[in-house]
Amino acid sequence: MHEIQFTLNGSPVTVKANPLKRLIDVLREDLGMTGVKEGCGEGECGACSILRNGKIVNSCIMLVGMVEGDDILTPEGLSAGKRGKAINEGYAQAGAVQCGICMPGMAIATEALLRENPTPNDHEIRVGISGNLCRCTGYDLIVKGVHRAAELGKDLW
Question: Fewer CB atoms inside 10 Å of the end CB: C or N, the chain?
Fold first, then answer.
């Protein structure tokens, strides 16, 4: 066991863990961040998406030892802030929420996209969320949700 320190949703944390343990397992089991979902365990679906130092990554294929000193944002941390609230409301208003498995990862992908491009067009949104699979909505409602989130949070990004 090693002590691994990083910032989680704006607060410093120290975990005692095998550095080879998957980050998703530490986030969910040790730190209670159950908004991080495991869909595939192979980095293909995006349900486990988080922001690591501002960049979107799949936590199911990262080892906790890789995030020493990093800044990690999970869906819980995102939803606690104004931008997360705009994303959640935008998705809700567009009717983009279905089963909920992909939504936390989609919200993280939306945050990453809107940080880079606060007024994306449909194509840019589809590219921005392309690492996240949704089996329920067909993506059209998600694209509308991202547009609505951008409108609601236009002064936040």
Answer: N
Give dist(CA 97, CA 102) in Å, integer. 9
Between CA 133 and CA 131 the distance in angstroms is: 7
Give residue 132's Cα distance to chain centre: 10
pLDDT at position 98: 83
- 64 within 8 A of 22, measured Cβ to Cβ: yes
pLDDT score recorded for residue 100 = 85
The two tokens of residue 39 are 């869909």
Note down the domain range covering 131.
81-152
Residues 6 or more apart whose Cβ sits within 8 Å of residue 127: none
3 vs 157, higher pLDDT? 3
CB burial of residue 136 (10 Å; 0-12, 13-18, 19+)? middle
94-101 average pLDDT score: 89
